[in-house]
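Researcher: Final request for today, and then I'll write up notes for the group meeting. The sequence and the SMILES for zinc ion follow.
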Amino acid sequence: MRNTLVVMAMTGWLALVGQPLLSAQTQTPTKGKPLEIDFIDVEGGQSTLIVSPSGESMLVDAGWPGFNGRDADRIAAAAKKAGLTRIDYMVVTHYHTDHVGGVPAIAAKLPIGTFVDHGETVEHDQQGDALYRAYLQVRDKGKHLQVKPGDTIPIKGLDVRVVAAAGEHLTTPLPLGGQPNPLCASFPARDPDPSENARSVGIVVTLGAFRFVDLGDLTWNKEHDLFCPNNVIGPVDLYLTTHHGLNQSNAPVAVHAMRPRVAVMNNGAKKGGSPEAWQTVHDSPGLLDLWQVHYAVAGGADHNVGESSSRTWTRPRRLASPSPHNATAASR
Ligand SMILES: [Zn+2]
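Model: Predicted protein-zinc ion complex:
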């Protein structure tokens, strides 16, 4: 059974209310609907539903296929709760099973307006080709927007800027970005990543003074390229941990440069939530709160947020304890 909570980010601070989803809402500077961001538990995959104050919606990734439609059911439930009858923009960060695999199933449940992606897959093994073909079959029924860094995803009421795509990255700073990044000097490079992860579409969503960043599964060296020599993104309020909180990503050169106020770790019980990455996020300067979608088995007591906090500078929470169901799904 999933334990779930809602986070309400109101004027930069968080409060808990009991609801069947992990959501963030902002208060807009003017009266009207808030921006709503729902972090849907897809058991170590990824899916985030963003509902603009305008009422338009954007789903970033769609979780896994299979499991009797589990992830599509959860996404559809979140959409229904948000009052949606369609998805206006379906953003596919990259073509891995835990992100694009669930797209056909959610497309069978809800009409999708525009499919947004980085272009062709670079993975042509049997599974990679099958995933991409299945995605193209549903993409062909809607509009298609292939994005590159610097592009805007034109959801009404929000500023959504693409900062990474197809292995390329933004070079012209966003407003609030452009500062030299002193962490670049001590960055330890790793072997190049030829996979789809490194080609993830990364976005920054801005509403007024509120900024949310989702970099998909962008990996270590690409994080460096995006944030060095200058921090083109600048500070953010809300950070979805890159790549499920795995230590193949979440380089300090990126996380600490963004100085997120709140981080959500989209880990499964046995996927993501690496101790090294957890510590990087936990130690990020200015962090007020860290949330995990699951207890990370690999992290143990020292590298998971507690059910309650004794710290004064952060109020960590976690959403769900490991269960056989979670462990089975997330380990695939
Ligand atoms: Zn992933």
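Model: Confidence is low (pLDDT under 50) at residues 1-21, 309-316, 320-332. The pocket of zinc ion is lined by residues 46, 96, 98-99, 217, 244 (CB under 6 Å).
Researcher: Thanks, that's everything.
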